[in-house]
Write a structure and sequence with these properties.
Distance between the termini: 78 Å
Radius of gyration: 32 Å
Largest sheet: 7 strands, mixed
Structural class: alpha+beta
Number of strands: 14
Strand content: 25-35%
Order of helices and strands: EEEEEEEHEEEHHHHHHEEHEE
Number of domains: 4
C-alpha cells in the first residue's frame, strides 16, 4: 500500500485507508513523506509493518495504467503561447500530484482549439510573428478609434462574433501561437487573403459612413485634419467629446502661431 503523511504524522493511503508506521519499524523515528508498505497490522490501530520510502514520481512511472488524471482550469496563456491546464494525478483515490501545468492541446486538441479561438483570437492576445496578425491588430485599433469618433460604444462587433470569424477560417488543429504562425507562413496567397481582417468586417453593419463623421474639415482652399480628444471624452463620459480642428494661423493668413479650436458635433 502507498501512503502520504499528513501534518499529524498519519498516513493516508489508497482507497481512503489510514495507517501509522509501526513503532518497531526502521522508519518510525523519521517517517518519510511518502511510504510504501507491504504488510499491514490491523489491531486497535492500523500499522504499516514492512516499509520503504518512495517518491510519487516512481509510482507514476511504474503504474501509469492504474492512474487517474484530471485536468483543471484549462485556459489560454499568452506567455507560453499555449492552452494550459493543471493536471491532477491520483492512484485509487490517493492524490500523487495535486496540480502541475500541462499543455492542454496534448490532452484534448478539440477543446484546446476552441479555447484558443475564444480566448486568444478575438483580442489577438498572442505574440505572433505573422504580419497578417500584426495588420489585424491595427484594424482593431482603427475600429476602436472609429467608435471614439462616432461616440458609439459597441460599434466594434463583439468578441463572440470575432471568434466566429476566425473559427470559420482557421484549421481545427491549431491551438498554439507556433502552430498559427506556421500555418500562416505556409498558406497560399488565396488563403492569406481570406484571413485579412478589414474595418468593414469588424464594425457593426449599421456603422455610419465616413461623410457623417469626417476625418478632415475644409476651410476655404485649405483642409485640416480632425481628431478626437479621447482622454477628455473618457473622463467626462463623452459629454465634452467632439472633433478638434487644429487651425494654423498661417493657413488663415494671420501669422505663425498655432491656434486650437473646438468644433463640437
Amino acid at each position: 500500500m502507498l501512503g502520504r503523511k499528513d501534518e499529524k504524522g498519519q498516513y493516508h493511503g489508497t482507497r481512503g485507508r489510514k495507517f501509522q508506521v509501526f513503532p518497531g519499524s526502521a522508519l518510525a523515528k523519521k517517517p518519510p513523506m511518502w511510504l510504501m508498505t507491504t504488510a499491514i497490522l490491523d489491531i486497535q490501530r492500523i500499522y504499516a509493518m514492512t516499509n520503504a520510502r518512495i517518491e510519487p514520481e516512481w509510482v507514476i512511472d511504474a503504474a501509469a495504467h492504474l492512474l487517474k488524471r484530471n485536468y483543471l482550469d484549462p485556459h489560454w496563456e499568452r506567455s507560453r503561447g499555449q492552452v494550459m491546464a493543471d493536471e491532477q494525478v491520483s492512484l485509487f483515490g490517493l492524490v500523487l500530484i495535486e496540480r502541475r501545468p500541462i499543455h492542454y492541446g496534448s490532452v484534448d486538441p478539440v477543446a484546446a482549439h476552441e479555447l484558443f479561438i475564444a480566448e486568444a483570437m478575438p483580442e489577438l492576445q498572442l505574440d505572433s510573428r505573422s504580419p497578417l496578425i500584426q495588420r489585424a491588430r491595427q484594424v482593431l485599433v482603427q475600429a476602436r478609434a472609429e467608435e471614439a469618433k462616432q461616440r458609439r460604444e459597441g460599434l466594434l462587433i463583439d468578441e463572440s462574433a470575432r471568434a466566429d470569424w476566425w473559427r470559420n477560417r482557421l484549421p481545427a488543429d491549431i491551438c498554439t501561437t507556433g502552430q498559427l504562425d506556421r500555418f500562416l507562413g505556409h498558406a497560399d496567397a488565396a488563403t492569406q487573403q481570406s484571413l485579412v481582417w478589414t474595418l468593414v468586417e469588424v464594425l457593426a453593419t449599421d456603422a455610419a459612413h465616413e461623410e457623417q463623421f469626417p476625418n478632415s474639415l475644409r476651410i476655404g482652399p485649405e483642409r485640416f485634419r480632425l481628431s478626437l480628444c479621447v482622454r477628455s471624452a473618457i473622463r467626462s463620459g463623452w459629454r465634452d467629446a467632439g472633433p478638434a480642428a487644429q487651425l494654423v494661423e498661417r493657413a488663415a493668413g494671420i501669422g505663425g502661431r498655432l491656434v486650437g479650436a473646438w468644433l463640437v458635433a
